[in-house]
Amino acid sequence: MHVTRQISRRTMLKATGAAAGAVGLTAVTTPAVAAGGAFAHPGLLHTGADLARMAAKVKAGAAPYTAGYAKLTANRHSQSDWIPNPQAVVYRGVELRPRSTWPQNYGALYNDIHAAYQNALRYHVSGDSAHADTAVAILNAWSAKLTKVFGSADRFLAAGIYGYQAANAAELVRDHKDFQLERFQKMLVDVFYSVSEDFLVRHNNGTPAPHYWPNWDLCNMACALATGIFCDDQSKVERAVEYFKHGAGMGSIKHAIPVVHDDGLAEWMEAGRDQGHSLMGVGLMGTFCEMAWNQGIDLYGYDDNRFLKGAQYVAKWSLGGNVPYTPYAQLDQRPGIQHPTAVAQAGPTQVRPVWAMVANHYTKRRGLSATYLTQIAAKSAPEGGGGDYGPNSGGYDQLGFGTLAFTRDKGVTAAAAPAPSVAATASASPGGGDLAATGSQDVVGWAAAAGVTAVAGGLLFLRRRDRVRRDGAQ
Questions:
Q1: How far is CA 470 from CA 152, 216, 272, 474, in A?
Q2: What global pTM score does this model have?
Q3: What is the per-residue pLDDT across 307-347, written as a single tens digit (0 to 9) for each?
Q4: What is the pLDDT of residues 164-212, one digit of tens each?
Q5: Using CB atoms within 10 A of its CB, is residue 349 exposed (0-12), middle (13-18) or buried (19+)?
Q6: What is the spatial distance between Cα 311 and Cα 266, in angstroms, rounded to a whole number?
Q7: CA dihedral of residues 51, 56, 57, 61 (deg, nearest 10)
Q8: Residue 357 — φ and ψ, nearest 5°?
Q9: Alpha carbons within 13 A on the beta-carbon side of 335
């Protein structure tokens, strides 16, 4: 088995004057990839340097990596005796019309994806090949059988969330001698990406794009980007990046984060809806930015660090702080749009494993001040993953384990340099350094801030998210 590969030159997007107006996934003006550029593998949420860092820190007994790894090894999905349960068709959502019902079985998919991811991650940290073999067996079983993701409008959530997650699990074992790479790539494109692309272009058979909350777009954007990287498809990556910047739907960054307030915080659109979906949104946008970053594309810093300001807003609100909110109807008059009017109530016990990745990027890689992110990441540590945050689908929306995977000291090449200001396209790191490598030479990560050396007792359960909604507004 060969899972360590020399990381190739990072792909960088160059400026080509992309249109500023809102666009769909098709018929867009996209930036070009630098001549001679190649996709880095592994290069979705984790690079080879990231995986080496995790293994070295755990072997050395460094905090808080050991606490993060203890969360991983304690999770039932990370055990090498996991038996996959592949399905030919995965159904999510209940159609409300007579004689059009089907059994929801999407739990089999998300449980197996998280088992594959956790076993693959555990292999890279421990070196125990039994975990890599288990991950490969799970992924091969699904690529041999799955033909379709179907259901109500919720099928788009299934395609987006489980598509990006499946790609990330497979990326960790793509060089395993038994992994069926081409078959898995075909499944990603035919089963997951095709549904995500259709949503981003048509938003469920021509439903006005603003009808769907940001998370619907964000998960499908993540699937599109992950598929493009995993399949070495430049056009898919460029289109996903362009949608992040200028897409017509609510997941594009200026729709999801519509207002930058005078205090430097930026309003998160779904804060007018509820806390759980806002946390999910931070996780999805962070996932999108991290995968892009690992290919040399800086979306974290896009539009003068707009995502940082939005994440700080959600962090402060989730910690119990007061945040401003402009009613969305005053900001966007397009037909079909959701119109929250005030910030929703937030509870300090509602936790998702979304903060370590975002906080470490801005404060460690980029050396920026992010008080609320630092506080909430420390409070949430050590982060677990699927199976640690409740039994329903909402507990599996993030792959998690950020304390183990994303803890880092300040980067060597990016030290205290801020991310680029408003730019038309992505850019490389300051001084020509490798974006994905910044912060890869950690010595001790965030031990003082997190204050964790062992697994915290008890679980925090999210409220049930997989409710049937007649209008599909998840």
A1: 9, 15, 20, 10
A2: 0.82
A3: 999 999 999 999 999 999 998 877 887 877 777 889 999 98
A4: 999 999 999 999 999 999 999 999 999 999 999 999 999 999 898 889 9
A5: exposed
A6: 8
A7: 140
A8: -60, -50
A9: 3
